[in-house]
## 1
Amino acid sequence: MNPEIKGIIFDLDGVIVFTDELHYEAWKITADEMGVYFDKEINNLLRGVSRMESLEIILRNYHGEPLSKGEKVALAEKKNDIYKKLLEKMQPSDVTDSVRDTLNELKRRGYHLAVGSSSKNAKYILERVNLLGKFDAISDGTNITNSKPDPEVFVKGAEFLGLQPQECLVVEDADAGIEAALAGGMHSAAIGNATASRKAEYNLATFEDLLVILE
Ligand code: BG6
Ligand code: MG
């Protein structure tokens, strides 16, 4: 336990909910239609990265006529339309008991909870799964200009909680997110995909492991 930690800033996609799979599905449909190669390994590079930057990464495998800015925006919008259709099916049961119970216990212990997500759909997702009221602050793709690995989304999250960066623990499934937490001077805990690089201060095997490191 680190007595300095007063707040926890959670990434959303791939940490609180498994929308990382839905991002993959929506990009896969978009890439297939363009004849651009895309797989789960490439999808891992998109974790924590903004929508337009994600498109640029996918287009590294595009070998056709150069695309205009307008065509790129249209592609990103198309992906987001597909993604939003998939999100419509989300419901409270898409949040695991492990996540819900752990959030409740952390609140009971007096921690301030925030979301720090690059997504512009974060509030909609939290509403769909009935978790919006659980967080004291939301910092997301609508209030930042630089996406992870820039620390902006977490710095704003700490500000919204009224805490100093070093009083916050960031929980992330993206390497870019762990890098952002380190750059912002925050504590960091990796889960899922981000555990492999071992860049974070803590590695979580399960979400409820948070209760152990914050005992
Ligand atoms: C992040 C995801 O949470 O949000 C990224 O990890 C995604 O993969 C980014 O590109 C932006 O999401 P959205 O919903 O604004 O397109
Ligand atoms: Mg994520």
## 2
Amino acid sequence: MHILHVVGARPNFMKAAPVLRALAARGAHQTLVHTGQHYDRNMSDVFFTQLQIPEPDFNLGVGSGSHARQTADIMTAFEPVVLETKPDVVLVYGDVNSTVAAALVCSKLLVRIGHVEAGLRSFDLTMPEEINRMVTDRLANLLFTPSEDGDANLRKEGVSSQKIHCVGNVMIDSLIRLLPAARGCPANGFPERLALVTLHRPSNVDDAENLQNILDSLGRVSERIDIVFPVHPRTRQRIAEFRIRLPRLHLVDPMPYIEFLALQTRAAVVITDSGGIQEETTYLGVPCLTMRENTERPVTVTLGTNTLVGEDRELLVRELNRVLAGKGKKGAIPPLWDGHAAERIADVLGSL
Ligand code: UD1
């Protein structure tokens, strides 16, 4: 069986790496396509190196653009690759524009689609990723979910149970594999006690006043604890464009996977609007304050260490004070987040 994988943006790389490895161990014929949605060395190449992902067979080099432009460019460049390589199954990951673009192409070419990280729903249609998730799941033939809530969402949408496979969390497969390397990472001059921040959602960073308010709140937080903030390119652009007044924070470039994981393990608290980081902190048992009104990963709130603080800056500071007083959520690790999700995906593909 010939499996073609599509990756494109930072969060895809740690999801695809274990699946590529599990299928390689079974001798599968595989093709890797990088759409080029993320292209900076520190947003892409360094992840390939650290996660030991093979060199892509095709790099579509699409780069940035509006959603329509980026999605269309990926579709146009990807279609001839599918026609040329004739895969039996195309695996797409997560919820980025590369995911939905590849799914649309395959559905029209009648190529089977497997969606890794299926079934997640924030029920917030102002979020571009939610649209990507819904469309991809509607078109996919194999839906690999990370947790039971994903199965329930899909069943409610009328997806046949036969298509749904609850395999667990592939992102946690990568985390477990590289945790020893992260634990061995030097402190690199970062403070002993720190809060780790990441922000890149359009809802938080694309409005000048909102972004200024968030950074001012972080300024208040930094009176209590040092803040390390690896800045996503989108956020970096907005800070420059809006001429934002920056409080005293340690702003650094986006970090490689292992170094970032090392900081997560050492952080007293993580403040984020990322999806994946809500999951990683839950696995690590590190309290996470999520600056979003909702999450497509509710298990991180019900079982894990995640607390949604939304846009309420007072709530952020209050929750932070609780965490720093040692009263943060302790949490538990969700079922099947055990380092073997990719093997379960390979089992399903092997049984087709
Ligand atoms: C994308 C995903 C988001 C994911 C995030 C992780 C979609 C809709 N969004 O958002 O789900 O959480 O990646 O990073 O697919 N840029 C660079 N260098 C790069 C990549 C991007 O400078 O290597 C800049 C681009 O100029 C662009 C901006 O960052 O203006 C946004 O990039 P884009 O891929 O459009 O979306 P993200 O915000 O990264």
